[in-house]
Write a structure and sequence with these properties.
The chain is mainly α. 70% of the residues lie in helices and 0% in strands. It contains four helices and no strands. Helix 2 crosses helix 3 and helix 2 packs antiparallel against helix 4. The longest helix is centred in the last third of the chain and has 24 residues. The chain is globular. The mean pLDDT is 90.
C-alpha cells in the first residue's frame, strides 16, 4: 500500500469512528439502527462473524464490535459502508419528499 492509499485509509477510519461516536452517544436513542440487517451486515462481513447476535447486546458492545470492524477494514470495506450510508440518505430524502 502506497502512502496515498495509507492516508486515505486513515482518513476513512477517522471519519467512520466519528460517525460511530455520534451514533452511539448516550443522548441518542437511535443507536439501535446499527442493529438493522443493512448496517450490521457490514461489520459481520469485515470480521467474518456470521453468527453474531447483536439483538441481545447493549450499546457499548455494539460500539466495540463496530470499532473492531473499523480497525480491521480496508478501503474496499469502507466503500461498501459508504454505499450503505448513501442508500439510506437517498431513501430518507425520497420519503421526505413524498411525505411518507
Amino acid at each position: 500500500m502506497n502512502s496515498e492509499e495509507m492516508e486515505l485509509l486513515l482518513s476513512l477510519k477517522l471519519r467512520w469512528r466519528r460517525w460511530l461516536g455520534q451514533m452511539t452517544r448516550n443522548d441518542k436513542p437511535n443507536w439501535t439502527k446499527l442493529l438493522n440487517n443493512e448496517w450490521f451486515g457490514w461489520p459481520s462481513n469485515v470480521l467474518g462473524d456470521d453468527y453474531a447476535n447483536p439483538l441481545l447486546w447493549g450499546r457499548e458492545k455494539v460500539k466495540a464490535y463496530y470499532s473492531k470492524a473499523i480497525d480491521k477494514s480496508t478501503i474496499r470495506d469502507f466503500l461498501k459502508l459508504d454505499n450503505i450510508y448513501c442508500a439510506e440518505v437517498l431513501v430518507k430524502k425520497a420519503t421526505d419528499e413524498q411525505g411518507i
